[in-house]
Specification:
Length: 143
Amino acid sequence: MELFSLPLLMGGAQGGGGTPASGPEQIISFAPFIIIIAIFYFLIIRPQNKKQKETQKMLSALKKGDKVVTIGGVHGTISSVKENSVLVKVDDNVKIEFSRSAIASVSSLAKEEKPEAQAAIEDKKTESKKAGDKETEAGETSS
């Protein structure tokens, strides 16, 4: 390699009229890179951080009696919680120990909807009793 072309390859200053970009020209030349970085942040990095925080919050809030689904798709109820693992009751006599990080989701709907579901069942019972009472009254008047 020739010695006089080495400074050119290393990015040395060229002699003559070439001046490096300065001021607004330099900002404009970096604008596409700044926009791409902003897009990556708002579309990829920020949502991933939010999801990670929510998952960490969910895992730290695990307690006995929660219905959970593991990453492998096993459904069960937590029977005990340890520091780094949980014991999940899968069937009547079957308990499996999982790492906390293996829990994909907590199905809190079962606990929260029980009072609502119970109220709906009671409403149906009272409606059926009322309907039964009306039928008996109608049967007694026609007799």
